[in-house]
Amino acid sequence: MTPDVDTAVLTCIRLCPEVLAAVADRVRPVVLGQGDRRPAITYEPVEDDHFDGVDGSTSEYTLTTYDFDIYADTHTQARFISEALRKHLHSSEFVAAGIDCTWFCDGTRVVRDKPTDGAPAPVYHIRQTYRLLWAAVD
Predict the structure, then answer these.
(1) What does the alpha-carbon distance between residue 78 and residue 92 come to, in Å, rounded to a whole number?
(2) What's the CA gap between 8 and 66, in Å, rounded?
(3) Which end of the chain has fewer CB atoms at under 10 Å, N or C?
(4) What tens digit of pLDDT does each residue of 42-58 get?
């Protein structure tokens, strides 16, 4: 059975009460939906590293790098969600959806998105990069 890492990622995010209160169910893989309100979070796996054992066997662990993008209507709101997510996930371990997850935050940066024509208000965008060490559990 292939592990459902997306469900584990969503579960880990939703275990943070401050983030859940701010974004509710607006957590999506890769891109926001056309009608999604802010604040919201998207996540995307950007790189996988698999480990080999000394004896040449393949390890059960995978290290996946994720980008989390936080979108909000105010800078204060974006920073609050970013900090709450970092405090919740960084150096934390969860078992979610049959996946043993250990998170490490590699950094946070403000992204300067170009405003779109006709946009009613600016969008504040913060990107966090995490490394997720994970393995399926029985």
Answers:
(1) 22
(2) 13
(3) C
(4) 999 998 887 766 676 66
